[in-house]
Amino acid sequence: MTNKELTKEEKEERIKRLATVVCICKGIPLGKVLPAIKACDTVEDVNRMAGTGSGGCHGERCGPRIRMLLKKKHDLQDSRPATRDTASDKEE
Ligand code: FES
Question: Is CATH 3.30.450 the classification given to domain 18-76?
Answer without folding.
Answer: no
